[in-house]
Sequence to fold (208 residues):
Amino acid sequence: MFRTFALIAATILAAPIARAETLTVAGGCFWCVEADFESVPGVRSVVSGYTGGRTKNPSYKQVSRGGTGHYEAVRIDYDPARVNVETLLHHFFRSVDPTDAGGQFCDRGESYRTAIFVQSGAQEAAAKAAKADAQATLGRNVVTPILPLGPFYKAEAEHQDYYRGTNLILTRFGPKRQAEAYKLYRKSCGRDQRVRQLWGSAAPFVGG
Fold:
């Protein structure tokens, strides 16, 4: 009996761990994009950061002030055996307003624009197909660019998993726990309302 268990354990330990693949997208506030995609089965992790610009190791203040060329973006690490890039891109377009070239929802400026950052020919082809599908579905011009992926700089620790943080912070709504402040921000910014208006029941992260 012991030998059987030992053999099973050895087999499990020897089994190769499935290699994660990555997709990098910008969809406005990275707190919201991170929260959305961490709920997708097959996604292993989502990291908030900055990419697409010129400044090395930028700070949140620098990026949000403008002039760095960087987008607020997320790196999605996923298990391709459980979810494919086509599904992730389909979800991405239906979680943003891809017709808005000036930012997203209440957040305006270059760092809040949408974009897809590709790292292979296959990923570029998938992104182009997803963009064409989104444009045909909406019947409107989709302005989200498809760009080559450059350096990705991980955002500061306080911006990771912001939507479920427990720190007490001062907001315009008064002192709030991070998770509560996030919900109030998302609602007041009109993100879900606009996504629902554009995509209706096809929006994957908006209930009701």
The chain has seven helices and ten strands. The first helix runs from residue 2 to 14.
